[in-house]
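User: Need the bound-state model for adenosine-5'-diphosphate:
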Amino acid sequence: MWKTVVRRILVMIPQLFVLSLIIFFLAQKMPGDPFSGLITPETDPSRIEELREQAGLNDPLPMQYVNWIKDVAQGDFGKSYTYKRSVSSLIGERAYNTFLLSLFSVILVYALAIPLGVIAGRYKDTFVDKTVVLYSFISYAIPTFVLSLIFLYVFGYQLSWFPTSGTVDVGIEEGTLSYYWNRIHHMLLPAITYAVLGTTGIIQYLRSEVIDAQTQDYVKTARSKGVPMRKVYTRHIFRNSLLPIAAFLGFTITGLLGGSIFIETIFGYPGMGQLFVNSVLTRDYSVITTLVMLFGFLTLLGSLLSDIIMSIVDPRIRID
Amino acid sequence: MSKTDILLEINHLSTSFRIKDDYFAAVDDVTLTLRKNEVLAIVGESGCGKSTLATSIVGLHNTENTKVDGEINYNNQNLVQMTDEQFNNVRGAEIGFIFQDPLSALNPLMRIEQQIEESLIYHTKLNKEERNKRVIELLQQVGIPNPERTAKQFPHQLSGGMRQRVMIAIALSCKPAVIIADEPTTALDVTIQAQILDLLKALQSETGAGIILITHDLGVVAEVADRVAVMYAGQVIEEAPVNELFTNPKHPYTRSLLNSIPQMNTEGQKLNVIHGIVPSLKNLPRTGCRFASRIPWMPQDIHEASPSMHEVAPDHFVRCTCWQRFHFEEESDVV
Ligand SMILES: Nc1ncnc2c1ncn2[C@@H]1O[C@H](COP(=O)(O)OP(=O)(O)O)[C@@H](O)[C@H]1O
Ligand SMILES: [Mg+2]
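Assistant: Bound-state model below.
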């Protein structure tokens, strides 16, 4: 197994290399640069030119690329023009915020979706099932930003149950119990919003997996052994139905760092999604390129992780 | 045969499936008995209701769209009337079931030992250690060469024949009085088929169980059956001891089935196929002789209006009267 893992990681290198080329040239094609935003009628064009020269933006493209890749290989992702700090520390901080929020959200999603999907499948066509299906259709139909805005307005502004932006209130001492509670309090509303929307797919998927598994021959075998129905569900149907969910788990885990653009932006939560939008708006090249590289890497890693997880939970799948 | 030899008595059993708002009988008024120590074969083409009948005996039809009427008497109890909980004490314990395709019939995520052990958990008082011992014993009994190793394996790691042996071990685990095998060799290679049939036969003489063997393969019937019931369109149309059936087949359907077996020695002769197909459940003729439409060259008046079973020789029963004048299609019949 370790051989495969190492091989798969080695294969990622050329893949990431191609990705870096694409990202670099796409970034070049973006109109404007970090300094175009500074231009006002009073700006001295030679001053802007000087800044460009300093930043190396006037070098020939291949040279710019090589310089960039050299730095990246050494773990230096450059400096954010907008935030005036190193990209790695900026992303590190945002990734931490996003990770906390995503983890919280994903736990909520699974805690909601697994029981709902399983119950809907098991009690297909009953009132409970119809209610769950109705819920999942509605949540599927609502765009993220609409639900975010509604929740923010109702629970944040009107009822004031939750803070409306940020990760923690100012002036709370770090490390205290109330600090942690305050952080969680800030995450609750965006996490609930995310969960309400994120459960849809899993519920539908699981429901149909359970319905499908019910008619499988191994279920008939289990019944023919005289296994009580309740045990047939827990020992046979649920385990088999959860397999496809496990197949996505790797992507889910690495996706924890991706963040949600809509939710983070609307809830003013300083995470990766929000950072991505802002850096695109301000043409903050070094941040954009690093983020896209990171997302690409995480996707590759997610697929590897998924394969490893599958080989653990499904005896038919082996990687050696 | 004395009355006490009877293991299972099926009386006027009908099993109907709901299609839209109507119920259609896939098993229509079937009466059969299974005795100790015997292999009762049920034969017929695909779609004749054999699996529906077998599934009714273990009560595994989905109650939402299936209706079962009549009696299945086992041990002075009518299985048809049992609740699912009551039935769970019979399934696996008193009646073992073997499915056609052992790969899909075994849970892909569970080790062989767990799958065999499962029936022991619900029907015996054995503790974990005793159960493990029994699992190995069973694997040995069904002729698995390395039981300790196989016990730890998963279904996909075994060959088709080994998997079917495991299925048989599961069916045997609690020493049931009745074993139902629904096309147990159909999914297997020919050489493996013979081995599995030999095994079933050997196990039967060891345990004295009664076996209902469902198949569409008359070769299988000839090899292992003691008695044969031929099913067509949900009904038993002929029933006889195996020798009698092969030497003295009566019903046009039985004769057509026998006639359609390819002969090894008559090279170049055309294959005799039965005219038409088994009608679908909705289109089953519910009055008159159900086989009439497949022998269209015969005049209609050879059939009984409401065909019933007639004893034509000791223990040999035939439905309808059409057998008396039936002949295979001749040149002159072709229009
Ligand atoms: N669950 C079901 N719902 C509706 N029709 C069914 C169902 N199972 C079987 N049938 C129909 O009942 C008839 C008998 O099927 P089956 O018992 O499987 O035949 P066999 O085992 O002899 O091939 C067929 O026409 C089949 O299409
Ligand atoms: Mg069948």
